[in-house]
UniProtKB/TrEMBL annotation:
Coiled coil: none annotated. It is found in: Nucleus. This is Protein EARLY FLOWERING 4 domain-containing protein. GO terms for cellular component: nucleus. Residues 18-99 form the Protein EARLY FLOWERING domain. Keywords: Biological rhythms, Nucleus. Signal peptide: none annotated. One of its GO terms (biological process) is rhythmic process. PANTHER family: PROTEIN ELF4-LIKE 4 (PTHR33469). InterPro entries: EARLY_FLOWERING_4 (IPR040462), EARLY_FLOWERING_4_dom (IPR009741).
Length: 118
């Protein structure tokens, strides 16, 4: 297991934005889930390769299920990364709204925050 950030807040984003411990714990949990799935995928790929090289009919048939499991795992990783991205964006938006309450255009007049479709 690895530690992404230490302490209660992380302010190393260059603009003084702080990310609270709950957000970091969510990131940590999701990254650990992703790593576990990727580790499982490595084992699946090794087994698929061994079955393929053996050319034994039963092993080749087993590969169908293993490849399905691998594809499902890849979908799970994509979903976890999408969740991470969304959570990070929301936490940054909430943090920046707390800091400034809005944005200023280059002419110094108030402007609208751009919201990205998600």
């Amino acid at each position: 297991m690895f530690q992404i950030f230490k302490g209660d807040t992380y302010s190393g984003l260059g603009n003084g934005t702080q990310v609270d411990n709950k957000v970091l714990q969510t990131f940590q949990k999701n990254f650990v889930q992703v790593q576990n799935i990727l580790d499982q995928n490595r084992l699946l790929i090794n087994e698929i390769n061994q079955n393929h090289e053996s050319k034994i009919p039963d092993n080749l048939s087993r590969n169908v299920g293993l490849i399905r499991e691998l594809n499902n795992n890849i979908r799970r990783v994509v979903d976890l990364y999408a969740d991470l991205s969304s959570s990070f964006t929301k936490s940054m938006e909430a943090s920046s709204e707390g800091d400034s309450g809005g944005t200023l255009k280059s002419d110094g007049k108030p402007g609208q925050k751009r919201i990205r479709p998600g």
